[in-house]
Amino acid sequence: MRRVIRDQLFVPWLEQQGYFAIHSAAFANTLGDGTLVVGQGGSGKTTFFVSALAQRSYRMLSTDRTLVKLTDEGILALGVPEAVNFLPGTLAQFPELRDLSESSPAERFWARNSKFHVPWRLLYGRFAAQPSHSKVLLKRIVFPEYGAQWECRTLSPAETREKLEEELLTADRDLPVPNWMEIYKQRDTSAETLLESMSHVHAEAVRWNGVSEISRYLAHATRPERESVMPLGPR
C-alpha cells in the first residue's frame, strides 16, 4: 500500500510541482551539498551509494530514483528511499552486508539473476544511517562506469546534458493523472530548462575498478573546499 501511495499519488504530485525523476542514487555531505550518481544498471550506482553509507559523513537521499527541481536557490534534490537489488558480489564487498550474501555460492556472485532484494530500512540500519529530511542542493553529478583502470574526468555541459537525458524518467508533458481532489497543477518548469541548468553543475565521469577507489574518491569529496576533480589514482 505504501508503494502504491508513493508511486501513484505522492511522486506524480511532486512531478506536477516541478520535480523531475532521474534514474540515480543521491546523498549529501554535512553542509547539504548534494551528489547525484547517475547511470544504468551495472554502472556502479549502488556501489557508490553503499560506499557513501560506509563513510558515515554523508546523509542519504535515494538509492535508485531522485527527484530534482529548479528553484531560485539552485537545483533542489529530494530523496525517494526504495529497496535495493544487490548482486551477492556487491554485498560481499562490505563487512556490514557480507552476511546477506552467504547463501549464494561464490560462482553466482555476479550472475544477474542472483540479486538479493534488500529493504532500504535494513540497508540504512546496517550503517546506522537515516534518510535525509532537510534541504539538499545539487552541487555535483557523477557518472560511474566499471572498468579496468581508475579514471576521473570533468565533463563539459554538452556531455553532461546528453548523459542526463538518457536517465530522465519524468515525461516532459502534463501527466495523465486523476485530479478529483484538485491537488495537481500544471508544471511551470520544462525538462529543457531543468537539463540546461543541470548541465552546468560540476560533473565527472568516474571509471572505477574497486570499492577502495570509490572510498578514496568520496572521502576527498566530503571536504567543503573541494571544487575540482580528485587528482589521486588507485594506490
From TrEMBL:
Keywords associated with the record: Plasmid
Top-level division of the source organism's lineage: Bacteria
Record Gene3D superfamilies: P-loop containing nucleotide triphosphate hydrolases
Protein name: Uncharacterized protein
Taxonomic source organism: Bosea vaviloviae
